[in-house]
User: Which sequence fits this backbone?
């Protein structure tokens, strides 16, 4: 369960988050939509403890994130995966090494166990044949899948997805959406997905929230939102949206 | 905004930047315990730095030595004292010119690429990704680079010193009528006549190189880590890295010479 309550965050004199509240029940995918620069990534960063809110409460599994110390944050991050826009792979490591990185740095697994785990997640995202390639030699969609494998390799309970389909063509996007839905259904992962894409919201979202002026302006299931006729719902989920 | 406010703001920013660099250096020192796990990567970094900087450094060193011999030789010739040319070239190469040349070239070649690499990682969220995986960017990215340059800079400086003296000897022989034997003998005497294992000029020079290497890597990594705003931000980080490195090389070079020759006798 991820819960934000009245979270505020200001950068300089710009109020980015102005009291956002949302909650993601266990095993659900929550889709967070909103215009560029509205603070979606900042919201995700609050949840994983890279950014601390000015006020308000951020809870993951009942534990308050902003007051965690270093060790608690590390423990939290082991239970949480984060998929970055474009994958954010380390480009001097191979695909397999990238995926192994979070395991090598902290877990006490033997190297053959690490290899097995890496192979498993790579197979799940359909990248088992590119394990030895360099991230510079693979396409955007493949990078994203490797990024997802890296997020999943620690067997997290939660995954945060930051624009998992930005800049991808509809076919590749569709594959990613299926993977996100599969991660929820097969692994029981609780997901928070930031996206602009209507297809993504429809395909993976159990609940949709739309950011407006630093808080959730509209929230509900896809069906509720589309039938509401609200201008925000029209802008992000209407037939004109993509 | 009026002038005093602008000055105040710019001053605050400088102090803030300097604080970031010092903090980064301290945290790098605290993460030295990770060095055994990063040995491979550190050696790769050191090797790359050496290979990248070596050709330019050697060319510049040869010419710098030649200029040094020429400059002093022209004056010495008036006093008919060109016999000490080897001594002067050797000592000033080892104490000042060698570390300075090596430092500036490392800043321009290796420091700039460190800032570009880390800056690119920063603006494409790779640094954040490391944090999210609980991999500390300081011991993963910064510490190996700082150690690599701290080791490579003195090594390259030793080579620069030698090549510079060779450059000087050519000019001495060709243009100033100082025989190779005389030049090298006086150079050797200058560097060997010492109660220490190495003469002061050499170890002060190598110590300078060590400090320069550390400073260049730290400043460049700091610039990279503070990059933001896409490709433009990376460009600015590279510019900041090279500018700050060169300023530091000059200021630290002065301070170290002053310390060893005036303060500590
Ligand atoms: N660390 C930071 N320092 C200053 N400003 C920031 C920082 N992180 C984000 N911002 C600003 O906050 C705003 C929202 O950013 P972000 O959450 O990335 O937007 P998006 O909704 O597109 O993901 C942007 O205008 C960005 O410039
Ligand atoms: Mg974003």
Assistant:
């Amino acid at each position: 369960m991820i819960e934000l309550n009245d979270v505020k965050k200001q950068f300089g004199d710009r109020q980015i988050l102005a009291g956002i509240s949302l909650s993601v029940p266990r095993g659900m995918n929550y889709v967070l939509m909103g215009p560029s620069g509205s603070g979606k990534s900042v919201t995700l960063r609050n949840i994983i403890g890279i950014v601390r809110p000015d006020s308000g409460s951020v809870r993951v599994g009942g534990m308050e994130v902003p007051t965690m110390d270093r060790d608690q944050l590390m423990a939290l991050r082991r239970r949480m995966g984060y998929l970055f826009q474009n994958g954010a792979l380390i480009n001097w490591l191979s695909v397999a090494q990238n995926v192994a990185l979070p395991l090598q740095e902290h877990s006490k697994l033997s190297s053959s166990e690490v290899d097995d785990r890496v192979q498993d997640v790579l197979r799940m995202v359909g990248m088992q044949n590119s394990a030895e390639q360099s991230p510079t030699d693979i396409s955007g969609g493949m990078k994203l899948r490797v990024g997802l494998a890296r997020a999943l390799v620690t067997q997290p309970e939660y995954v945060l997805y930051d624009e998992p389909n930005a800049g991808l063509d509809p076919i590749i996007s569709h594959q990613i959406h299926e993977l996100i839905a599969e991660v929820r259904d097969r692994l029981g992962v609780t997901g928070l997905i930031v996206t602009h894409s209507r297809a993504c919201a429809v395909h993976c979202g159990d609940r949709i929230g739309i950011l407006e002026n630093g808080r959730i302006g509209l929230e509900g299931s896809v069906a509720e939102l589309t039938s509401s006729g609200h201008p925000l719902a029209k802008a992000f989920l209407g037939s004109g949206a993509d | 905004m009026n002038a005093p406010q602008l000055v105040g703001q710019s001053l605050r920013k400088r102090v803030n930047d300097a604080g970031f660099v010092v903090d980064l250096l301290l945290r790098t020192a605290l993460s030295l315990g990770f060095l055994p796990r990063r040995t491979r990567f550190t050696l790769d970094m050191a090797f790359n730095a050496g290979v990248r900087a070596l050709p330019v450094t050697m060319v510049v060193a040869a010419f710098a030595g030649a200029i040094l011999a020429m400059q002093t030789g022209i004056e010495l010739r008036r006093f008919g004292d060109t016999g000490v040319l080897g001594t002067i070239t050797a000592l000033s190469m080892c104490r000042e010119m060698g570390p300075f040349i090596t430092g500036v070239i490392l800043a321009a070649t290796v420091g700039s690429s460190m800032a570009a690499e880390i800056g690119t990682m920063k603006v494409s969220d790779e640094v954040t990704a490391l944090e999210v995986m609980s991999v500390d960017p300081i011991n993963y990215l910064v510490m190996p680079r700082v150690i690599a340059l701290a080791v490579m800079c003195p090594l390259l400086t030793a080579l620069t010193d030698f090549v510079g003296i060779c450059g000087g000897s050519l000019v001495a022989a060709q243009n100033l009528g100082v025989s190779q034997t005389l030049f090298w003998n006086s150079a050797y005497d200058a560097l060997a006549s010492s109660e220490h294992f190495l003469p002061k000029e050499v170890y002060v020079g190598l110590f300078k190189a060590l400090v320069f290497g550390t400073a260049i890597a730290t400043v460049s990594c700091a610039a990279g880590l503070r990059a933001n705003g896409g490709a433009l931000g990376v460009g600015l980080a590279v510019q900041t890295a090279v500018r700050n490195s060169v300023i530091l090389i000059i200021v630290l070079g002065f301070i170290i010479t002053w310390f060893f020759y005036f303060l500590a006798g």
